[in-house]
Design a protein that fits this description.
This protein is an all-alpha fold. The protein has two domains: 187 residues, Up-down Bundle (Growth Hormone, Chain: A); 187 residues, MFS general substrate transporter like domains (Growth Hormone, Chain: A), CATH 1.20.1250. The protein is 77% helix and 0% strand. The longest helix has 32 residues. The chain is globular. The relative contact order is 0.14. About 2% of the residues have low confidence.
Length: 384
């Protein structure tokens, strides 16, 4: 008999370190000073490379879990994260390549564990319990990001390379996984293996495309908030960091209360989340002071944490037992791809826009369109 409390402990421990790679954003300027011969685009790869590598391993880990124990896949990903941090910490001041290798290995951990945490939840939990646990998982991702940013910032204040000491938190997580996650996948996760060779449900592809678009529109805030705040004289880099913390904080609260929120809005939740994203983007579009940017950050944090568990749950249900891991992998990969491509897509569309803030018009229109599309989709499913 599997102890579900131990499984929850594993999910929450992994989730708390899921966004560990973003701690590099606080030391990019220091890295640029240490390696003045490197262009800013090259230095930025320390932050962007994990997302790119994460896409590959997020998608690949789903099919792999049909043949390999999820425990061993998670242990591999977590070991990569630990190794990446160790390489960056020990060699990062000697060679820039070490920082890129560390970032790449962090991306392996990020991609694998993002998919596997949701897959483990869908293996051991079902129905309302599964949906609520996905909400709590989102809370741990956001809460963990806040704590990691705080600790790494303090460590970097001593010496920028010390920010990588945060990666040694993977050691207790490894111990938790080894001690608490069963080695064998549940029998239910392999049922219907013959069916797994057939085509993926069209609903899964619908959610995959939806989450790709969601990633494009959501990431407009993260990629432009710093330039907007500093360009308008509303604050410094610390203000931008605080705005991101507010976004993560509202995301954490939404994740904790996700069960109650889901029961209240029912099939309307996705549409409500997209409208919140649209309103938040509109606040950023018309903002003439930093207070409106804080409101935008809070609304987008709610939007993120209300959307992710809902779509991941719906995708896993639509894929069925035999292909849920693959379905979750596709959906997670689509989100990462959307966030990675967001600056390229949005910048291409907004070339003739007057202000930097006008980029938010794209996300306003996009979120409203998603609200309408997802509203019709979920209503149709509710009637079925």
């Amino acid at each position: 008999m599997v102890d579900k409390k131990k499984v929850k402990m594993v999910v929450f421990a992994i989730s708390s370190l899921l966004m560990i790679s973003v701690t590099a954003s606080a030391i990019l300027a220091n890295i640029a000073l240490h390696y003045p011969e490197k262009s800013m685009n090259t230095v930025s790869m320390v932050l962007t490379l994990p997302a790119l590598v994460g896409i590959i391993f997020s998608v690949a880990s789903g099919p792999a879990s049909l043949r390999i124990s999820k425990k061993w896949i998670i242990l591999f990903g977590t070991m990569c994260g630990l190794l990446g941090g160790a390489i960056a910490f020990t060699l990062g001041k000697s060679t820039f390549i070490a920082l890129l290798i560390g970032a790449g290995l962090a991306g392996v951990a990020q991609g694998i564990n993002a998919t596997m945490t949701i897959a483990v939840i869908s293996d051991y939990f079902s129905g309302e319990e599964s949906k609520q646990l996905m909400g709590l998982q989102s809370a741990f991702v956001n809460g963990g990001s806040m704590v990691l940013a705080l600790i790494s910032g303090i460590l970097a204040g001593i010496d920028w390379i010390n920010a990588y000491l945060i990666y040694f938190l993977f050691i207790p997580v490894l111990w938790i996984v080894v001690r608490n996650l069963p080695a064998a996948n549940p029998a239910s996760s392999h049922e219907g293996q013959v069916v797994a060779d057939g085509p993926m449900s069209s609903k899964v592809w619908f959610y995959t495309v939806s989450l790709f678009a969601f990633g494009v529109f959501l990431f407009v805030f993260q990629t432009n908030v710093s330039d907007i705040v500093m360009g308008n004289g509303w604050g410094t880099a610390s203000t931008s960091g605080l705005l991101n913390s507010v976004m993560m904080g509202f995301g954490m609260i939404t994740g904790i209360l996700y069960g109650q929120i889901s029961r209240f809005f029912k099939e309307r939740l996705l549409a409500v989340a997209m409208l919140a994203g649209g309103i938040g983007s509109f606040m950023a579009l018309i903002a003439n002071n930093v207070f409106l940017m804080f409101i935008a950050a809070g609304l987008l944090g709610f939007c993120l944490s209300a959307t992710m568990p809902t779509i991941l749950f719906l995708a896993s249900e639509a894929a069925g037992p035999a292909k849920k891991d693959v379905g979750i992998a596709f959906v997670n990969g689509a989100l990462n791809l959307g966030m990675f491509l967001s600056p390229f897509i949005v910048n291409a569309i907004s070339q003739n826009f007057g202000r930097l803030q006008d980029k938010f018009m794209i996300s306003v229109v996009g979120f409203v369109a998603l609200a309408v599309i997802l509203s019709f989709s979920t209503k149709r499913e509710a009637r079925a």
